[in-house]
C-alpha cells in the first residue's frame, strides 16, 4: 500500500485508452512515473475516458473513467472516491479537491486569457489555486512565474506551499548539431496549433515575411491530436501566396532533434498559459536562435538578447524580431550558443534530483 | 519650437518634511529617467507630497503638493491635485502605478517597479476579501488611464494579466539597467588571498532578507575562518543602523558600513559572492544587476523580477531565502572558486544585455509612441 502512488491526470492515453497523447503534460508525468518507479514506488494512472477501461502503458496500469467533457468534475469526484491511498495530482487546473499528504503540480499560470474579465480570472485562482494552497501538502510549480503570481494574490500561503522545479531537457538527445542545411532560412514552430500557443500571431506575420525574403521558409512541427486544428491549418495554408515555403510535419518525439537541427530560428510565440515550455528548452539545448514571448515561465528561460529574444506577444514585435534574426546570422549564432549553454542548467538529472527530495518528504517509504 | 513639458508624479523623492533623501533604487531610476527626458529635448518637473515647498535636484525642479491622505496604497488627493494643477504640462509620467488612480492625464505613462503586495504583512493592509477587491478595483482604474504601462520585470505584467487581463496590450517590459562601464569586473585577480568575501548590498530591512543573512553569517563565520561578511546599506532609521553596528562589532569577520554610490563599483569588485536574498517586493534589482556587471555570482531570493535576470545554477542561484538555504548556497560557492569564476563571468555577460544604453533606447521608443 505504502509503495503505491496513484497519478491522477486528464489524459496520458487518448480517451479510448489506445494511443499515448503527445503533449507537454504527458511527457512530464511519464518522466515522473519513470523516476517514481526507479525509486521503488508502484505507479498507476487514472484518467478520463469515453468508457471505463483498464490497460497498461509501458508496464504501468492505466485506468480510464467514463467522462463527459461538459461535466468533468463528476469524473474527478468518482476517481477521487474510487482510489484509496497516496495520490499525486498531475495538474492543478484539473482538480478542486486534494487529500492530505499529496503533491499537486502546476504547469504554469493558465487562466490569463487576454480580454478575460477580472471576475473570470478570480474564479480561476479562487477555485483552483486557493484549493491547492489550502489542501495539498505541496505544490510543485514548473516556473517561478506561477509562484510569484500566486504569492501576489495569496502572500501567506503561496510562499510556504509552493516549490519551484523548472522543466527539464534531456541533454543526451538534444544537443547542437548540423542540420541538412541549404541556403534557405528556416523558421520552426514546434507547438500545438492553438491560439494560446500563438499560432494566430505567427499567421499574421507570415505573408509579408515570405514576400520580403525569398530564402525564408516556415516549418510547422505539429501534433495530430486535434483534427479541427489541422483542417484549419490546411485551409489557411492553401490560401497563402507562397505556400510552397510553408512546410509541415508530424514528427514523433524521437524525430524532434532532427526537426530542430534543420531549423535556423525557433519561435515560441505564446499568448497565454505557458510554463517552462519543453519546446523552448529543447530548442535551447539544440543551440537555436529563439524568439519567445514574455509570458509565463518563458521569462524564466530566456533573457532578452542573451540567449534568445523575449518579446511582448504582438504581431508587430514578432515581425520585427523575425526580420532582425533573418538579417543577422551572426546574432543567430551568438544567441544560439548562449541558449545551448543556459540549457545545461535544465538537465533532466537536476530535475530528477530535486523531485526526489520532495517525493521522499511527502511520500516517505518505510 | 519650445520644449514639450513633462510632469513626473511621485510620492516621496525627498522626505515630505525635510531634506533627507536616501538614494535607493527608485530614486536613482527617477534621476536617470529625468536626465533621459532632458537629453531627448523635454522640459521636466517632478511633483510629490510636501507642504508646498519647491526645491531643485540634479537640475530638475521639484514641487510639492500638500496632501496626506493615503488609502489602499493609493493617493487619490495627490493624483487629483496633480491632474488639475499640471494642465500646463503636455505629458505626464506616473512614477508609481497607483498614482494614476483615480484620474490620469491623457498622454501619460505609468511605471511599475515590481510587485510590492506579495509579502505576508500586506495582509494587514488589505487582508479582508472586500479590502482585497477594493485594492484590485482601484488598480484596475489606475491601469485604465495611462496610454502605456511600463514594467521593470515580467512578473508584474504576468500578475496583472492573471488578475486584470484587460490591459494586456498596454504593457511594455523595460527591465532595469546598469552602467556596464562604471560597474565592471576587477582588472586583475587579487594575489594570494584566500579570504572569501560575501557582500549584502541592500537596505537593512526584513523584506530584503537581512535577518536570515545575519543568522547565516553567524553560522558560516564560526564554521570557516576564511569567510567574511560585509553588510553595506542604510537602515530605515538611526536605531537600525546603531543595532547593526553593535551586532557586527561583536562578531569576528562581520562588517557593517555604507558607501556613496560612486564607491559601489569598488565594493562589488572586492566581493566574491553577492547576496540579494529578497523575500518579496522585488523587481529587476539594480543591486543585483550591478553585482553581475562586476562579474560576481549572485545568490538571490525567488522574488519578483530576480528570475528575469538570474538562471538558477548558471549565473547565480535562485533560492527561497531561509537561513538553511542561504548557508547551503553560500557554502557551495565559497568552497568552489572555479564555480564562482564561471558564474561571475556569465553574470557579466548577462549584465551586458541590461546595459543602460539599451534601457534608454527602449524608453525613447515608448516615449515617442505616447508623447506626441
TrEMBL record, chain A:
Record EC number: 2.4.-.-
Highest rank taxon of the organism: Bacteria
Domain Glycosyl transferase family: 179-340
UniProt entry keywords in alphabetical sequence: Capsid protein, Glycosyltransferase, Transferase, Virion
SUPFAM superfamilies membership: UDP-Glycosyltransferase/glycogen phosphorylase
EC category: transferase
CDD domains, alphabetized: GT4_PimA-like
Gene Ontology molecular function terms on file: glycosyltransferase activity
Record protein name field: Spore coat protein SA
Organism annotation: Neomoorella thermoacetica
Gene name tied to this protein: cotSA_2
TrEMBL record, chain B:
Keyword Glycosyltransferase: yes
Entry keyword annotation includes Glycosyltransferase: yes
A GO term for molecular function: glycosyltransferase activity
Keyword vocabulary terms for this entry: Glycosyltransferase, Transferase
Enzyme Commission number, as recorded: 2.4.1.57
Domain of life, per lineage: Bacteria
Family annotation (InterPro entries): Glyco_trans_1
Sequence ranges assigned to domain Glycosyl transferase family in this UniProt record: 193-349
A Pfam family annotated for this UniProt entry: Glycos_transf_1
Gene3D superfamilies with a match to the protein in the record: Glycogen Phosphorylase B (3.40.50.2000)
Protein's recorded name: GDP-mannose-dependent alpha-(1-6)-phosphatidylinositol monomannoside mannosyltransferase
Taxonomic placement: Bacteria, Bacillati, Bacillota, Clostridia, Neomoorellales
Protein encoded by which gene: pimB
Amino acid at each position: 500500500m505504502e509503495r503505491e502512488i496513484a497519478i491522477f491526470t486528464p489524459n496520458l492515453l487518448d480517451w479510448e485508452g489506445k494511443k499515448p497523447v503527445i503533449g507537454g503534460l504527458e511527457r512530464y508525468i511519464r518522466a515522473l512515473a519513470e523516476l517514481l518507479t526507479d525509486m521503488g514506488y508502484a505507479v498507476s494512472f487514472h484518467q478520463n475516458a469515453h468508457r471505463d477501461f483498464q490497460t497498461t502503458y509501458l508496464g504501468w496500469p492505466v485506468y480510464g473513467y467514463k467522462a463527459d467533457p461538459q461535466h468533468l468534475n463528476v469524473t474527478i469526484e468518482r476517481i477521487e472516491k474510487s482510489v484509496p491511498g497516496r495520490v499525486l495530482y498531475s495538474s492543478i487546473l484539473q482538480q478542486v479537491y486534494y487529500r492530505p499528504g499529496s503533491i499537486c503540480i502546476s504547469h504554469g499560470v493558465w487562466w490569463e486569457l487576454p480580454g478575460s474579465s477580472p471576475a473570470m480570472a478570480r474564479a480561476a485562482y479562487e477555485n483552483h489555486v486557493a484549493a491547492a494552497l489550502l489542501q495539498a501538502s505541496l505544490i510543485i510549480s514548473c516556473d517561478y512565474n506561477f509562484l510569484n503570481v500566486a504569492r501576489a494574490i495569496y502572500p501567506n500561503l503561496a510562499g510556504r506551499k509552493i516549490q519551484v522545479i523548472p522543466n527539464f531537457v534531456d541533454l543526451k538527445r538534444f544537443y547542437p548539431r548540423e542540420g541538412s542545411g541549404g541556403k534557405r532560412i528556416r523558421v520552426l514552430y514546434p507547438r500545438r496549433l492553438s491560439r494560446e500557443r500563438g499560432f494566430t500571431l505567427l499567421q499574421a506575420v507570415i505573408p509579408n515575411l515570405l514576400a520580403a525574403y525569398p530564402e525564408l521558409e516556415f516549418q510547422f512541427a505539429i501534433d495530430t491530436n486535434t483534427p479541427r486544428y489541422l483542417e484549419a491549418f490546411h485551409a489557411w495554408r492553401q490560401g497563402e501566396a507562397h505556400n510552397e515555403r510553408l512546410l509541415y510535419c508530424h514528427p514523433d518525439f524521437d524525430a524532434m532533434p532532427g526537426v530542430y537541427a534543420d531549423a535556423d530560428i525557433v519561435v515560441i510565440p505564446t499568448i497565454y498559459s505557458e510554463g517552462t515550455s519543453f519546446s523552448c528548452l529543447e530548442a535551447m539545448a539544440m543551440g537555436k536562435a529563439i524568439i519567445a514571448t514574455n509570458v509565463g515561465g518563458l521569462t524564466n528561460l530566456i533573457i532578452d538578447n542573451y540567449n534568445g529574444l523575449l518579446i511582448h506577444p504582438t504581431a508587430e514585435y514578432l515581425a520585427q524580431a523575425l526580420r532582425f534574426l533573418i538579417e543577422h546570422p551572426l546574432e543567430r549564432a551568438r544567441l544560439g550558443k548562449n541558449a545551448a549553454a543556459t540549457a545545461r542548467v535544465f538537465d533532466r538529472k537536476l530535475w530528477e534530483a530535486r523531485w526526489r527530495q520532495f517525493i521522499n518528504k511527502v511520500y516517505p517509504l518505510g | 519650437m519650445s520644449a514639450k513639458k513633462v510632469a513626473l508624479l511621485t510620492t516621496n523623492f525627498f522626505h515630505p518634511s525635510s531634506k533627507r533623501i536616501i538614494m535607493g533604487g527608485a530614486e536613482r531610476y527617477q534621476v536617470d529617467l529625468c536626465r533621459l527626458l532632458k537629453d531627448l529635448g523635454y522640459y521636466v518637473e517632478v511633483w510629490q507630497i510636501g507642504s508646498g515647498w519647491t526645491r531643485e535636484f540634479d537640475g530638475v525642479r521639484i514641487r510639492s503638493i500638500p496632501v496626506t491622505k493615503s488609502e489602499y496604497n493609493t493617493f487619490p488627493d495627490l493624483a487629483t491635485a496633480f491632474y488639475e494643477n499640471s494642465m500646463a504640462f503636455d505629458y505626464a509620467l506616473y512614477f508609481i502605478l497607483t498614482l494614476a488612480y483615480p484620474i490620469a492625464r491623457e498622454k501619460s505613462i505609468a511605471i511599475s517597479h515590481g510587485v510590492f503586495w506579495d509579502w505576508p504583512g500586506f495582509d494587514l493592509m488589505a487582508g479582508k476579501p472586500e479590502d482585497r477587491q477594493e485594492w484590485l478595483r482601484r488598480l484596475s482604474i489606475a491601469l485604465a488611464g495611462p496610454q502605456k504601462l511600463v514594467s521593470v520585470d515580467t512578473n508584474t505584467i504576468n500578475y496583472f494579466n492573471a488578475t486584470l487581463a484587460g490591459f494586456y496590450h498596454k504593457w511594455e517590459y523595460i527591465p532595469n539597467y546598469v552602467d556596464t562601464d562604471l560597474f565592471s569586473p576587477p582588472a586583475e585577480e587579487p594575489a594570494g588571498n584566500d579570504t572569501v568575501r560575501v557582500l549584502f548590498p541592500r537596505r537593512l530591512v526584513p523584506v530584503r532578507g537581512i535577518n536570515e543573512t545575519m543568522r547565516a553569517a553567524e553560522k558560516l563565520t564560526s564554521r570557516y575562518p576564511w569567510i567574511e561578511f560585509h553588510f553595506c546599506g542604510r537602515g530605515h532609521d538611526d536605531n537600525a543602523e546603531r543595532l547593526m553596528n553593535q551586532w557586527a562589532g561583536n562578531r569576528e569577520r562581520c562588517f557593517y558600513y555604507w558607501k556613496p554610490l560612486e564607491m559601489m563599483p569598488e565594493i562589488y569588485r572586492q566581493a566574491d559572492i553577492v547576496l540579494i536574498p529578497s523575500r518579496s517586493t522585488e523587481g529587476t534589482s539594480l543591486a543585483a544587476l550591478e553585482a553581475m556587471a562586476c562579474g560576481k555570482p549572485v545568490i538571490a531570493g525567488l522574488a519578483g523580477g530576480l528570475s528575469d535576470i538570474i538562471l538558477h545554477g548558471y549565473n547565480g542561484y535562485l533560492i527561497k531565502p531561509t537561513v538553511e538555504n542561504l548557508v547551503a548556497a553560500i557554502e557551495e560557492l565559497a568552497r568552489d572558486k572555479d564555480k564562482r569564476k564561471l558564474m561571475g563571468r556569465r553574470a557579466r555577460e548577462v549584465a551586458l544585455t541590461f546595459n543602460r544604453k539599451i534601457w534608454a533606447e527602449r524608453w525613447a521608443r515608448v516615449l515617442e509612441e505616447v508623447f506626441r
